[in-house]
């Protein structure tokens, strides 16, 4: 499935803004597979000198290499920097070309003596190509919200790995936020209403803007909030201001900004991305739209403001604009209480060292069993009501 994050404009902005460049540990290559004069497949590849900004953690593998006097870095990464969004990574005309691209990249890694290759958050076609090429498969869990209101529910509404949902054949999109709340258990409805009420009673109101309607002042305020959030956690932000300036000029149609205001002054923001899709969202026909939770920040602390800015406002917007799903980003089991359900995400890995490859394969088998048990446990705790 294509996403806005594999567009040339997005990847170029990461590079041109000095956000993902060799100086920050991201050395970009574009791998192209030609069939005569025809381009058959392509992908972006980064030679990495660390494992930051990936959201599929392999620090333990790097430490094990170091303990044995071996170099884990540089490694090869096929991914979108700082963007844990599932979608296509290996662009190809067909499955055969996609698999050939993977094998060619592995050969390139061997020629350049890179320790390993990692394909992160690929789609099902990428997964199949990597599996056919002998890469090790890894599964993790994210939490996504689906705009599906079952007409009758005999069991929980659960998102599965392929982004499908176990719902009634009569499922429809939610009419409004109250309609969405009616699908949840009484406990979850009460909790969400209490959290939203706390924000309103604190005098906080929201407005949103999309695309070209996001002003320069809004972008500047957003970045001040985004930067502060990172600095509060002791790290500089991954993305430079110039990156968001590029998004405002080259990809404005893909961004929606929510601004929290109190006494007429902005005090918090959240930013989501939207794929091309429904005409109500982007003014054009196409495949169903998907929204992606990306960044947030606040200059003041208000109880439950994070949940309102990052979940309830985007979900309400998605319902109003016919967006099919809202992906909440990496990790966060607490998202289930807001009706974002667990889905499996995939990554694939090749390690040049045979002994370490065998060790990682055994580790992934054990980890995979843990992920399966975790998914089963989460599904038993569905926030959706049963009838």
Question: Can you characterise this structure?
Answer:
With 387 residues, the chain is α+β, with helices and mostly antiparallel strands. Helix content is 36%, strand content 25%. It is built from eleven helices and 14 strands. Helix 6 (186-201) crosses helix 10. The protein is globular. Residues 153-167 and 278-285 have low confidence and may be disordered.
Could you list some keywords that capture this structure?
14 strands; 387 residues; two-stranded antiparallel sheet; 36% helix; alpha+beta
Low-pLDDT residue spans: 153-167, 278-285
Shape: globular
Task: Give Rg in angstroms.
Answer: 22 Å
Secondary-structure element order, as H and E?
HEEHEEHEHEEEHHEHHEEHEHEEH
User: What share of residues is helical?
Assistant: 25-40%
Structural class: alpha+beta
- Rounded mean pLDDT is 92
- Euclidean distance between termini CA atoms: 34 Å
Query: How many helical stretches?
Result: 11
Instruction: Compute the number of strand runs.
Output: 14
Percent of residues in β-strands: 25-35%
What profile does the largest beta sheet have?
12 strands, mixed
How is this fold's topology laid out?
Blueprint: H1 8-16, E1 26-35, E2 38-48, H2 59-67, E3 75-78, E4 91-92, H3 95-111, E5 116-120, H4 124-132, E6 136-146, E7 158-159, E8 165-166, H5 177-182, H6 186-201, E9 204-210, H7 216-232, H8 241-250, E10 255-262, E11 265-274, H9 279-282, E12 290-298, H10 305-320, E13 325-330, E14 341-351, H11 354-379
Parallel strand pairs: 3-5, 12-13
Antiparallel strand pairs: 1-2, 2-3, 2-4, 5-14, 6-13, 6-14, 7-8, 9-10, 10-11, 11-12
Helix pairs in contact: 1-8, 3-4, 6-10
């Amino acid at each position: 499935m294509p996403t806005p994050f594999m567009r040339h404009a997005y990847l170029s902005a990461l590079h041109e803004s000095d956000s993902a460049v060799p100086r920050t540990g991201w050395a970009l290559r574009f791998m192209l597979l030609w069939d005569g004069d025809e381009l058959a497949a392509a992908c972006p590849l980064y030679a990495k000198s660390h494992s930051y900004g990936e959201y599929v953690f392999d620090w333990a593998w790097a430490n094990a290499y170091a303990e044995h006097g071996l170099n884990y870095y540089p490694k090869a990464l096929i991914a979108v920097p700082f963007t844990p969004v599932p979608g296509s990574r290996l662009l190809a005309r067909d499955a055969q070309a996609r698999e050939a691209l993977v094998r060619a990249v592995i050969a390139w890694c061997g020629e350049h003596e890179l320790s390993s290759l990692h394909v992160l958050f690929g789609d099902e076609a990428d997964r199949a190509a990597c599996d056919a090429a002998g890469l090790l498969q890894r599964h993790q869990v994210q939490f996504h919200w689906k705009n599906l209101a079952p007409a009758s529910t005999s069991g929980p509404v659960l998102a599965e790995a392929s982004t499908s949902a176990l719902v009634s054949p009569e499922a429809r999109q939610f009419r409004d936020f109250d309609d969405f709340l009616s699908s949840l258990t009484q406990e979850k409805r009460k909790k969400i209403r209490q959290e939203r009420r706390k924000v309103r009673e604190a005098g906080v109101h929201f407005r949103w803007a999309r695309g070209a309607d996001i002003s320069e002042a809004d972008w500047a305020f957003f970045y001040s909030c985004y930067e502060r959030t990172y600095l509060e956690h002791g790290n500089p932000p991954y993305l430079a201001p110039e990156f968001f300036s590029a998004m405002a000029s080259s990809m404005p149609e893909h961004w929606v900004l929510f601004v929290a205001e109190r006494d007429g002054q902005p005090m918090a923001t959240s930013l989501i991305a939207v794929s091309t899709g429904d005409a109500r969202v982007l003014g054009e026909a196409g495949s169903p739209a998907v929204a992606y939770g990306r960044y947030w920040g606040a200059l003041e602390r208000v109880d439950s403001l994070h949940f309102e800015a990052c979940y309830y406002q985007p979900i309400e917007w998605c319902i109003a604009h016919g967006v099919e799903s809202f992906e909440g980003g990496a990790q966060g089991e607490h998202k289930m209480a807001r009706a974002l359900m667990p889905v499996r995400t995939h990554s694939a890995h090749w390690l040049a060292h045979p002994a370490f490859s065998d060790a990682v394969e055994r580790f992934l088998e054990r980890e995979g069993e843990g992920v399966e048990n975790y998914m089963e446990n989460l599904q038993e705790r569905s926030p959706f009501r049963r009838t």
